[in-house]
Amino acid sequence: MTLRVTVWGENVHEQTNDIVARLYPEGMHACIAEALNEDDAIEARTAILQDPEHGLSEDVLESTDVLTWWGHAAHGQVSDEIVDRVQKRVLEGMGLMVLHSGHYSKIFKRLMGTTCSLKWREAGERERLWVVNPGHPIVQGVGDYIELPHAEMYGEPFAVPNPDEVVFISAFEGGEVFRSGLTYKRGNGKVFYFRPGHETYPIYYDAKVRQVLRNAVHWLRPEGSRWVDSCPNVPPDQAPNPVEIKGESLHKPGEEGFR
Amino acid sequence: MTLRVTVWGENVHEQTNDIVARLYPEGMHACIAEALNEDDAIEARTAILQDPEHGLSEDVLESTDVLTWWGHAAHGQVSDEIVDRVQKRVLEGMGLMVLHSGHYSKIFKRLMGTTCSLKWREAGERERLWVVNPGHPIVQGVGDYIELPHAEMYGEPFAVPNPDEVVFISAFEGGEVFRSGLTYKRGNGKVFYFRPGHETYPIYYDAKVRQVLRNAVHWLRPEGSRWVDSCPNVPPDQAPNPVEIKGESLHKPGEEGFR
Amino acid sequence: MTLRVTVWGENVHEQTNDIVARLYPEGMHACIAEALNEDDAIEARTAILQDPEHGLSEDVLESTDVLTWWGHAAHGQVSDEIVDRVQKRVLEGMGLMVLHSGHYSKIFKRLMGTTCSLKWREAGERERLWVVNPGHPIVQGVGDYIELPHAEMYGEPFAVPNPDEVVFISAFEGGEVFRSGLTYKRGNGKVFYFRPGHETYPIYYDAKVRQVLRNAVHWLRPEGSRWVDSCPNVPPDQAPNPVEIKGESLHKPGEEGFR
Amino acid sequence: MTLRVTVWGENVHEQTNDIVARLYPEGMHACIAEALNEDDAIEARTAILQDPEHGLSEDVLESTDVLTWWGHAAHGQVSDEIVDRVQKRVLEGMGLMVLHSGHYSKIFKRLMGTTCSLKWREAGERERLWVVNPGHPIVQGVGDYIELPHAEMYGEPFAVPNPDEVVFISAFEGGEVFRSGLTYKRGNGKVFYFRPGHETYPIYYDAKVRQVLRNAVHWLRPEGSRWVDSCPNVPPDQAPNPVEIKGESLHKPGEEGFR
């Protein structure tokens, strides 16, 4: 079964910064989608901030198994309505991969419930992403670590809830460390945060980074059925053990949607 | 050291519903504060939705070790600015106890990142809250379970992230079950969700429920130091291993606040 | 790809108790294997306590993707060597489903690190297993709950570490509750504890229970690669940043296997 | 209330290695106890492998709030009976701090359920332990990180279950990283693994390391009541909802201790 991926890109730096435009002439999202499409089991398309509904219409999300998210300069321009929509789909079971500066996106902060802040430095220093669980599906094919010659530094503390799993921990040339690969489950959806991807370095051309992107899409695939959220009233006579109403009550039995 | 608690009440049903007004003539918040003040180590005051800033000014939150939250009919009237403020204080280390229908409050949904929905029925049925960890500080003094003769039913699925601990699980007369006592950590703040407290029953007069409220306030006390969130730039020459800037860079080194 | 399952059965009650022998003339393990083999993607075989090496030779475990474990009367007769072997395979990535009274098996206690005790009563009472996450792969096809007309009661506290996910919570006719479906990850292996299965009731003939067994086997399948445990010495000149040995040292560099 | 700490030391290297004997003439355990006793709220005594019952009699453990564990060369000489005893006390609520090479102790492996393996190198290289949660009680007073000029390297993967919290992450001069401060809860007891402490370096004289030891003892203090493990039978007529026995049954009602 083909995994349908939507690669979301902010697509701002590509238009305003020469370095980024040179590195990613079609946009970072195009490069990420290309990396994913090298896997025959993945069918990746792109969507960008500037599209109507940021390219994330109900139809697009309905037909998306895994969404990847890269943003940096324009988090505030993402409409709350679209964030609501993406969150709903994650809880239903859609996978979400949040990339690099996406740590500060509305959708990631929404799902984490924390500020998602960190330390940072942009000096083109070396980063090594160490594998914490060598058997994990996400790290297959990367060996002991991924080495990136030039990267932005992100340092702890990373203000996120304790994850289900730490998959990568980075060590930077300057000395800092960072939990660079984290998994969460929210509702029936899986979430993977993956650190690399600063716009002024050719990170998404790195073979091992591309391998992780593909691995992660497979790991993030929806499993089970869609969890359709509701807050249903269960009338007393429809309880497994039917009950009589006792005493006075504020609500009428069966009254829907009060909550 | 005295624990400074602010008991927040929505205070709507008390004004509009005769049953609630009769049960809680001073308001549910007053009853909860009274239960807490039976403990000499606790100093509880109240704040309500109708107060300026909902009673949760910077000064009030600054001098609050633990905040308790009860709301139901007017979640939407709580201003987002106050929710931001409460969230910030939780991440810094303030404890938060979310009560009953507070599961649908803005602050709880904010911290959980999920819808926090559930099943419900209001028939005055019997509830038993079973203790899952008999050694846990929160359950001291309650024995094997708490029995409430009349309660609103909440049933699974409860749409929250997997908690750090399940402290209580309820069984209802009608047959449903619910994770009724859940702990989380967000930033440096502890969060406790405690289910009982429907407004039309005298739940907050129950001796065991009051004991749990007091126990939980102690467990929720701030520990360690305030975590002041920031997203600092660490200049290359201030790294533990000072680094040279390599290659071209989008940002100027030391540029603050881009993120 | 076919999932290779080994269904392990203690096979003691079947030989000593008329009721059990009548319910499960081929043994409980045979009934469980039959339930699994209804799924074309699963190939289940059986192994029993009385077999040489309890039927769990290196070869058998090597060719097992998921192991199911039912035991009750003879936990102490399982050799520690076989427990070591099963634990090793779980950490490498083999899935493990622990059934009912298997909560007190050596292998489950080994993997949990706790006593795994609980309350119990055998009165043939009704049990309902409520679904906590309706989208989860393990609960597909069971609706809101599974109802078993006659079951042994297990009650909280269940002395296990906090699980990754609570999938089922049971309510018993007598009033008790129990976390009846729990998931864990240990090493690269997934673990699922599933409560139903008392030997004197025809639990493993129940259609929904059989559906859960099949679902769980799929969920437990190995993912990623085998995690081969080791505790390697990394010589100073093979570090990513080669280091000089400083000062005196108890061990000689490169000395293997001290730890 | 004074915290009663027992500092357990293997006390083997001190007797057999000149460097260790010179660094820790009274034994490493004495140095650790001294660090703890600088805090007036702590009363630390020592126990060693060579003592009768390894110094961990029922009486000693009974009067111990927090136990610290350092071992390396003689894990196999610790009797299983004492390991059982320590595990029982942890589950009841006693805090446990496992130090450095104690990662391979019987008690730590017992509580984790995994191999607890890791990479290692002994070259006297620099280690920095970065703080992951600056508000956490355990890290108070250490700033952004602890720097140790000479340390043994431990590298990921660290084969332990996902912890409740990662408090420290180390970066080593040679490039490796390690989760150096981890918290767990097992039963009602808290567990803290703290990495530093190789015997041939003066680690336990470091002011920040000593601060963490003291902080951790406070954090590990027992809370709530002792969780006395049992596996009780609840007779049908003593259920909250008394039940009639239905059908045939393997066990007689009320029969104790079958499990």
TrEMBL record, chains A, B, C, D:
Residues 4-219 form the ThuA-like domain. It comes from the Bacteria. Coiled coil: none annotated. Residues 231-259 are annotated as: Disordered. Residues 245-259 have a biased composition (Basic and acidic residues). It holds the Pfam family ThuA. This is ThuA domain-containing protein.
